[in-house]
Amino acid sequence: MGIVYVDGIARGPSGEATVRFLADSGATYSVLPSDVWQGIGLTPRRTVTFSLADGTTIDRRISECYFILPQGEGTSPVVLGEPGDYALLGVLTLEALGLVLNPFTRELQPMRLLLV
User: Fold this and answer.
1) What is the spatial distance between Cα 37 and Cα 54, in angstroms, rounded to a whole number?
2) Is 0.70 surpassed by the pTM of this model?
3) Which terminus of the chain has fewer CB atoms gathered within 10 Å of its CB, N or C?
4) Which of 45, 28, 48, 36 is nearest to 93 (CA)?
């Protein structure tokens, strides 16, 4: 599909930071690098165990963050990254903002929302 980056803002209790996210429709959670989430004052709410592609597991702390993207804004769970982790925009955040990653245009666009 190719690599898709999205410039946005992550906002927390202590401020906000401009972040260049790698948009990944195959990732469940978004990730903020440690310097970003610490700088905007996010605090861990819980810990989740993730399985990696090679079968190993890692524990990561989760918080809530307010995301501002050119296509929309809102709150979403976010993984509090550790040193070496990159900014990632996952499907939970995309869905919370009512967005979908179009694989043909490599752009975020509004999703078709159904109320059933």
Assistant:
1) 27
2) yes
3) C
4) 28
104: tokens are 């043909």
**Token match 């070496």: residue?**
84
Q: What is the DSSP letter of 9?
A: E
> What is each CA distance from 100 to 7, 8, 16, 40, 68, in whole angstroms?
15, 15, 24, 26, 15
Average pLDDT over residues 15-38: 95
Residue type, 33: P
CA 25 from chain centre, in angstroms, equals: 10
| CATH of segment(s) 4-108 | 2.40.70.10
Q: 6 pLDDT band (50/70/90 cuts)?
A: very high
